[in-house]
C-alpha cells in the first residue's frame, strides 16, 4: 500500500507517516524508483503496535526502543496492551458511575459520601509538568509558572486568545515545507511568544516540539487546530532551532 492509502486506512496524516520514517520508527520495506513508499502487511502490523503504544501514552522514543529490541515479542506486547486497556477501561467505568451517581445525588435520589464523589479520579502526579522538568530542568518551568501565576484572570484570558491566534496561523501553514520562509516566520512568532512567559533556549524549544509528537496528549490538543499540525510544528521548530544555533 502507498503512504496515502495507509493514512486513509488508519486515519492518520501522511505527514505523520513521513515523520515515523524520518526518525526510524517505521520505514516501509520497499520504495519504488519514483520514490513512493510501499507498506507491506508486516509494516502495517508494526504500525498497529506503534498506535497501541501511543494510545497508552508511550512516547515515540520509547516505542522505538521497545519494538526494535531483540527481545520484543509481538504476542506478549498485545497481551500487555490488553491488560493496560482493561485497566484504563475500568478507571473510565468508575468515572462514568461517579457521574451517574452525582446526577442522582443532585436530584435528591441518593446520598453520596465525599469519597464517592471522587471515585475514578487519579491526579497523583502531573505528567506534563514532570516531563518538562525532566527534559529542561526546574528553572524554565518555575519561571513560566511564576509569570502565569502573577497574571490576572484577564491577562490569562488574553494569553489563551493569543495562543489560539498563533496556532490558527500555523495551522494555515501546515501543508507547506517546515523549511519554507513562511513556516519559519510563523514558528519564530511562537518562539518569541513562549519566551515572553518563560525562558526557553533553542534546545528547549526543539525538545518541546519533539514532545508535541511524542506525547499523544499534546498531539491531540494541537491537532484540534488542524490534522498534522503537531508534526509540522515539531519539524519547523527543529529547523528553527538548528538554523539559529549556527
From TrEMBL:
GO terms for molecular function: DNA binding; DNA-binding transcription factor activity. InterPro entries: DNA-bd_dom_put_sf, MerR-type_HTH_dom, MerR_fam, TipA-like_antibiotic-bd, TipAS_dom. Keywords: Activator, DNA-binding, Transcription, Transcription regulation. The keyword Transcription regulation applies. It comes from the Bacteria. CDD domains: HTH_TipAL-Mta (cd01106). SUPFAM superfamilies: Antibiotic binding domain of TipA-like multidrug resistance regulators (SSF89082), Putative DNA-binding domain (SSF46955). The keyword DNA-binding applies. Residues 1-69 form the HTH merR-type domain. Pfam families: MerR_1, TipAS. PANTHER family: HTH-TYPE TRANSCRIPTIONAL ACTIVATOR MTA, REDOX-CYCLING DRUG-SENSING TRANSCRIPTIONAL ACTIVATOR SOXR. This is Transcriptional regulator, MerR family.
Amino acid at each position: 500500500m502507498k503512504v496515502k492509502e495507509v493514512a486513509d486506512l488508519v486515519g492518520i496524516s501522511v505527514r505523520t507517516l513521513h515523520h515515523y520514517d524520518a526518525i526510524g520508527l517505521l520505514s516501509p520495506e520497499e520504495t519504488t524508483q519514483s520514490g513512493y513508499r510501499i507498506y507491506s502487511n508486516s509494516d502495517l502490523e508494526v504500525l498497529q503496535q506503534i498506535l497501541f503504544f501511543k494510545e497508552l501514552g508511550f512516547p515515540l522514543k520509547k516505542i522505538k526502543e521497545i519494538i526494535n529490541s531483540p527481545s520484543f515479542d509481538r504476542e506478549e506486547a498485545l497481551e500487555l496492551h490488553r491488560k493496560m486497556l482493561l485497566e484504563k477501561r475500568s478507571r473510565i467505568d468508575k468515572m462514568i458511575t461517579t457521574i451517574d451517581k452525582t446526577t442522582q445525588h443532585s436530584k435528591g435520589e441518593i446520598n453520596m459520601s465525599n469519597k464517592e464523589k471522587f471515585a475514578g479520579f487519579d491526579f497523583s502526579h502531573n505528567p506534563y509538568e514532570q516531563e518538562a522538568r525532566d527534559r529542561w530542568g526546574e528553572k524554565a518551568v518555575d519561571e513560566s509558572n511564576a509569570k502565569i501565576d502573577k497574571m490576572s484572570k484577564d491577562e490569562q484570558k488574553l494569553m489563551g486568545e493569543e495562543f489560539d491566534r498563533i496556532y490558527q496561523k500555523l495551522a494555515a501553514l501546515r501543508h507547506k515545507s517546515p523549511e519554507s520562509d513562511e513556516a519559519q516566520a510563523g514558528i519564530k512568532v511562537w518562539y518569541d511568544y513562549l519566551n515572553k512567559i518563560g525562558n526557553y533556549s533553542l534546545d528547549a524549544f526543539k525538545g518541546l516540539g519533539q514532545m508535541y509528537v511524542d506525547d499523544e496528549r499534546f498531539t491531540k490538543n494541537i491537532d484540534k487546530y488542524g490534522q498534522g499540525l503537531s508534526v509540522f510544528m515539531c519539524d519547523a521548530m527543529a529547523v528553527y532551532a538548528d538554523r539559529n544555533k549556527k
